[in-house]
Design brief:
The complex is a heterodimer of chains A (about 325) and B (about 775).
Chain A (H helix, E strand, L loop, with lengths): L22 H6 L4 H14 L4 H13 L1 E4 L7 H12 L4 H7 L8 E4 L4 H7 L7 E4 L10 H13 L4 E5 L2 H5 L3 H15 L3 E5 L8 H13 L4 E3 L11 H18 L4 E3 L7 H14 L12 E3 L2 H14 L12
Parallel strand pairs in A: 1-2, 1-8, 2-3, 3-4, 4-5, 5-6, 6-7
Chain B lengths: L2 H7 L10 H9 L3 E2 L2 E2 L2 E2 L5 E5 L6 E6 L3 H20 L1 H18 L1 H12 L3 H29 L3 E3 L2 E5 L5 H14 L3 E5 L6 H13 L6 E3 L4 H9 L4 E5 L2 H11 L5 E5 L4 E5 L5 H12 L10 E7 L3 H13 L19 H12 L5 E4 L14 E4 L6 H4 L6 E7 L2 H8 L7 E5 L3 H7 L7 E4 L18 E2 L4 H5 L3 E3 L4 E2 L19 E2 L1 E3 L2 E3 L6 E5 L5 E6 L3 H13 L8 H17 L1 H12 L4 H19 L5 E3 L5 E9 L2 E5 L7 H12 L3 E5 L6 H11 L8 E4 L3 H10 L5 E4 L6 H7 L6 E4 L3 E2 L10 H6 L1 E9 L3
Parallel strand pairs in B: 1-5, 7-8, 7-10, 8-9, 10-11, 12-13, 12-17, 13-16, 15-16, 17-18, 18-35, 22-26, 29-30, 29-32, 30-31, 32-33
Antiparallel strand pairs in B: 2-3, 4-5, 6-20, 11-19, 14-15, 21-34, 23-24, 25-26, 27-28, 28-35
Helix pairs in contact in B: 4-6, 4-8, 5-6, 6-7, 10-25, 11-12, 19-21, 20-21, 21-22, 24-25
The chains are: A alpha/beta (about 325), B alpha/beta (about 775).
């Protein structure tokens, strides 16, 4: 069985082609909540990065951020500000002191109507644009419209599509419907990569998270993602652990590589380090790259900027010293 | 490496915890220590070095205690004890609270000191050991506060001699000292010679908070000092350490009339069923066998995994092993630290290198070039017959075997001399709660491992020792019944030369496996009445009859699985049937003893049967309030098969007083009747036969207590031996009990008023049961 740990940091891989729905595998999925919570609770005490290592890890976190705005009041001007920040996420003098010139975020994530503005703002930077889609965040509009929405966003220039699954399929145990829906979304994406948002905060149990993760991967998701950021509970370490282990199993069984994106609720530099450490432990170093890992976050960057300035100057920093996005 | 390079490699880098404060504390104390006796440090005497196992550096010079030092410490403890007891529970609680607070204030210093001295990762000393130490003192401050109310019928034992190991130096100190002083005892504690520093720091804290002088005394040194403490004039010995040393201590203290608790080795089973969350079970193993480098008495060191998933599970486990980080224990990013001493590495190496079975896998993780380390190791494909499946390695080495059925998992798990802890991994609650009670272990963790708390008792069965530490159950080891001791008087056999009272010959037989059996040796002896007439003949049981009776008692172990309701009914029925023949029994008692209180004794015996019938379905366990989302269920289990020498002076009531609590709690027993008046027991056989008592639940022998005591005490298939004989056999029984380290309850040449309240109740029920703590974390 291939192991995720054996993949070199720069190893190339093909897109996840998906596999037929395997309900025996799905039904065997287990997730023991207390044990998973214990693992997550003790992780920060087991793994710690300091000084230059911490700075480097925080830079890595930045490179994996999907800088996001998903508000009803988004405008072209607001998105322009965000794309500018994406190109230059940290003050140039700080990056230069760190020897990290040229650092950018992983992607910019917006609603469909803002895709064009984002593409324009990022032109030439190589930073991809991700569009949330399929009736985000609830995913309850008619299926043909959700598929059409994907197609529109791809046409508008989005490189990545963040779809939301129908939570009702999970909650009612309609796994075949979940698989079929995901497969249809994947097909509509064409060459654009698809991230499957499970909305884990609405799935009720970690076992459901494990099952939904497996099914979305079987149906061809390039990434599995925790949340829309709109659920009452968004990304957590326990949910992350379950999804990472599902990715690991899926790779071991099929040889297909799938990425991971926690979203919502990650706002502190220390949290970002914990996520990176958990990924390093559970999947290995290959997953610490933006092609396989993203943070869906809007305020995380601000905290990291302050930490980096502290690292460079030795003095604690203030938010207003860093350009807003 | 530059930030840019680290950005590419994403390696962890060093994350050292500073040792400056701890090293400064050592220097401030002159880097050399005397003992802590009577509230002050003594002059430094003959010293030995204590080293940091991770680097080999000398940390400090410690004093090897002399006999005079130990005597001084015991004298100080003895002198301080009455005042400390008289202070009352609430008074002691204030000091214990102050200790708990001080242990919190100095938490980081203690954690770093522990890691320097022992080699365990700072993560563990900081996040596990020291918080548990603090918790233990807080918890027992509460027990002190409540003692006057909750333990009104108990008194402190006196001076406690305590010897602790090097694997959890301060935590083991806390487990020993906190309950002892909470209950009004004073202590003389000897830490392990490799790891005495935190004990000395604790002594310093005792001084700082103004703990009365002599309440806590600490003497340092090697095993010879431990022997001195054990052999000193103490009222109780508590030991945690190896089974071989525990055995020696049992021998050394035999007949001394003092309490003993032993927390010894283990080879704890870690059972993984096919429906378990395999990744979580793998992660659990990290905490089971690589926690503290596997130098943990309750380490889950024996992996028992269901056949169908074994390959998958081992593959996951090996991948996880490769991710472990081994190295400088002061690094906050280290999973596996240094082994305590080069001697221990040698022991581990020898055991592992001596194994030729199975397949050996070592973690591919990088090993430190220098220092005292051993790589995380897995040996798969072993069978119970392999040495490494039986012997405790006490290092980071996991051995593995497979099973097919739940029943087989239990069989393999219990195929060991030890019985400390076990883990069961399954997502099926029926399976978990069916398997857990069947495991021969004092602690069982369901879907978890190495969960500890001051509120839950910890301790083993079989050769893992006896006694519990922590929780309500831990307090009984540091208290004794609050009653005046009564000296034991030997009850002599009556002599006579008269005629038989009945012309028809009556030779009482033994009662084994529900049948009346002739003694294997074929000998009988006369029993004379007080008036010199011949009451009858009685069988002389020999060692072979003990063997047969123990076999029969084992054959009846289904009794343990019957309901309390059923056992109550049978005990009531016994009382009823005895009542029907009360007159006859009373006559017999009077004829044999010549005392004339036979009627009263029979009445008391009937009452006692009713009392234990009442208890049979009411001696409940507890659910401990432990700080996890889950429950720790303290279940009262029968001890098993118990042999007992019944009281001589009360031939019927004594027999019933011993038999009934054992029966009520689900034990089966081999009872040796009153030696001078055995006919009451043999008459009672007919009552047993008419009262629906299943065959083998009670077996009755007659004969010489002195001749049978040793055979019983040595019998490796007996779980406990009690002696209330008027021949003081306490020392002999305790010494002989080391074969399987069975529990003993002996009278120490004292007796009790069998007719009164001392003849029944809590003491008997406690001795007839052992507590298993089953931890069940839950959550969806």
């Amino acid at each position: 069985m291939p192991s995720t740990y054996d993949l070199a940091p720069d190893a190339a891989f093909a897109r996840n082609l998906g596999v037929p729905l395997d309900m025996a595998w799905v039904n065997a999925a287990q997730a023991n909540t207390p044990a998973i919570e214990r693992r997550c609770a003790t992780l920060p005490g087991r793994r710690s990065v300091k000084k230059d290592y911490q700075a480097a890890w925080l830079c890595r976190a930045i490179s994996c951020i999907d800088l996001t705005t998903l508000s009803g009041d988004d405008t072209v001007g607001r998105v322009a500000r965000l794309t500018a920040k994406a190109r230059q996420p940290v003050r140039a003098d700080i990056l230069s002191a760190l020897g990290m010139e040229g650092l950018t975020v992983g992607a910019v994530c917006v609603y469909h109507d803002m895709v064009e503005a984002a593409v324009k703002g990022l032109d030439g930077s190589g930073i991809p644009v991700a569009a949330v889609s399929t009736g985000f965040p609830a995913g309850l509009s008619p299926l043909h419209l959700r598929i059409a929405e994907i197609e529109e966003s791809v046409k508008a220039g989005a490189h990545e599509i963040d779809i939301v699954i129908s939570r009702r399929h999970v909650l009612s145990g309609n796994w075949q419907a979940l698989y079929d829906e995901m497969k249809a979304f994947r097909a509509a994406c064409g060459d654009a990569h698809v991230k499957a948002i499970l909305a884990t905060g609405e799935l009720g149990t970690l076992r459901n998270v494990a099952k939904a993760s497996l099914i979305c991967m079987m149906a061809g998701a390039d990434f599995i993602k925790t949340s829309t950021g709109k659920e009452p509970v968004n990304a957590t370490l326990p949910v992350t652990l379950v999804m990472l282990r599902a990715i690991r199993d899926y790779y071991a069984q099929t040889g297909h590589v799938v990425g991971y994106k926690p979203a919502g609720g990650i706002s502190k530099a220390k949290d970002a380090i914990n996520y990176l450490a958990l990924i390093k432990e559970e999947l290995g170093d290959r997953w610490l790259r933006p092609d396989l890992f993203r943070f869906g976050a809007s305020s995380l960057l601000g905290d990291i900027e302050r930490q980096l300035e502290h690292h460079v100057t030795g003095a604690y920093s203030a938010a207003y010293r860093h350009p807003m996005g | 490496m530059s930030v840019k390079e680290i950005f590419e490699t994403m390696s962890y880098g060093p994350a050292p915890e500073s040792a400056a404060e701890a090293l400064a504390w050592l220097v401030d104390n002159g880097s050399s220590f005397g003992h802590f006796i009577n509230g002050a440090f003594t002059e430094v005497g003959d010293t030995f070095e204590t080293r940091n196992p991770a680097t080999g550096e000398v940390l400090a010079e410690l004093t090897q205690a002399s006999q005079a030092d130990v005597d001084a410490a015991v004298d100080a403890a003895r002198a301080a004890q009455p005042k400390w007891e008289a202070l009352g529970g609430a008074g002691r609680a204030r000091y214990m609270y102050a200790l708990a607070r001080a242990l919190q204030k100095h938490g980081r210093l203690l954690a770093v000191l522990e890691t320097l001295d022992n080699g365990k990762p700072i993560r563990e000393s900081r996040d596990i050991d020291i918080p548990l130490v603090q918790r233990h003192f807080y918890h027992h401050a509460g027990h002190a506060q409540l003692m006057d109310k909750t333990m009104a019928d108990r008194a402190p034992v006196g001076v406690c001699g305590q010897v602790i190991p090097w694997n959890f130096p301060l935590l083991m100190l806390a487990w020993k000292v906190a309950p002892a002083i909470a209950m009004g005892n004073t202590v003389v504690l000897k830490p392990a010679e490799y790891t005495s520093l935190t004990a000395l720091c604790f002594a310093d804290i005792c001084r700082q908070i103004g703990l009365p002088a002599g309440v806590v005394n600490i003497v340092t040194g090697d095993g010879a000092v431990g022997e001195m403490v054990v052999n000193a004039d103490v009222d109780k010995v508590a030991f945690t350490g190896s089974t071989s040393v525990g055995r020696k201590i049992r021998e050394a203290t035999a007949g001394a009339g003092i309490g003993l608790t032993l927390e010894l080795g283990g080879k704890s089973a870690y059972i993984v069923f096919e429906d378990a969350d395999l990744d979580s079970a793998v992660e659990g193993l990290v905490d089971a066998i690589w926690f503290n480098q596997g130098q943990v008495c309750c380490a889950g060191s024996r992996l028992i995994v269901q056949e169908g998933i074994a390959d998958d599970f081992h593959a996951r486990l090996k991948a996880r092993m490769d991710r472990l980080r081994i190295g400088n224990p002061l690094d906050k990013c280290i999973d596996v630290g240094a082994i305590v001493d080069p001697m221990q590495v040698e022991t581990i190496t020898k055991l592992v290198d001596g194994n030729t079975s199975g397949e050996l896998y070592r973690s591919a993780a990088e090993m430190p070039a220098e220092g005292c380390y051993y790589p995380p190791t897995l040996i798969t494909g072993l069978s119970p017959a392999d040495t490494l499946m039986q012997e405790e390695i006490f290092g980071p080495v996991l051995v593995s075997t497979t099973f097919r059925l739940p029943s087989e998992a239990v069989q393999i798990a219990n195929n060991t001399r030890y019985g400390l802890a076990a883990s069961v991994w399954t997502e099926n609650i029926n399976r978990a709660l069916d398997v857990a009670p069947q495991l021969a272990a004092g602690v069982v963790w369901v879907n978890g491992t190495n969960l500890f708390d001051a509120a839950a008792g910890f301790g083993g069965v079989r050769e893992s020792g006896f006694g519990r530490e922590g929780g309500w159950e831990g307090l009984s080891a540091y208290t004794r019944p609050n009653r005046e001791p009564r000296e034991l008087a030997k009850v002599e056999l009556k002599e006579g030369d008269g005629l038989p009272v009945d012309a028809i010959d009556r030779t009482a037989k033994l009662y084994i496996g529900g049948k009346q059996a002739r003694p294997d040796g074929g000998y009988s002896q006369p029993v004379w009445q007080a008036d010199g007439a011949l009451a009858g003949q009685v069988s002389i049981a020999s060692r072979k009859d003990i063997r047969n009776a123990v076999e029969a008692a084992h054959g009846a172990k289904g009794w343990a699985k019957t309901t309390g309701h059923l056992r109550a009914q049978i005990l009531f029925y016994l009382g009823e049937n005895l009542s029907a023949r009360a007159y006859e029994f009373a006559e017999r008692i009077d004829a044999l003893t010549g005392r004339g209180d036979g009627t009263a004794e029979v009445k008391a015996a009937i009452n006692r049967l009713f009392t234990y019938a009442a208890w049979a379905d009411k001696y409940d366990g507890r659910v401990h309030g432990v700080p996890i989302k889950g429950v720790a269920m303290a279940m009262n289990e029968p001890v098993g098969v118990v042999g007992a020498l019944c009281p001589d002076e009360r031939p019927l009531l004594g027999l019933v007083s011993v038999m009934a609590p054992l029966m009520a709690m689900g034990n089966t027993s081999v009872l040796v009747a009153s030696e001078p008046y055995p006919l009451l027991a043999t008459d009672f056989i007919q009552v047993l036969e008419t009262s629906d008592v299943p065959a083998g639940v009670v077996n009755i022998l007659t004969g010489c207590h002195g001749d049978l005591a040793k055979t019983m005490a040595q019998h490796m298939n007996l779980d406990a031996v009690w002696s209330f004989s008027s021949t003081d056999l306490s020392g002999q029984i305790e010494a002989a009990s080391t074969t399987n380290l069975k529990r003993t309850w002996v009278n120490n040449a004292l007796t009790r008023d069998w007719m009164g309240e001392d003849g029944e109740g809590a003491e008997f029920l406690e001795a007839a049961t052992r507590i298993k703590n089953i931890w069940v974390p839950y959550g969806e």
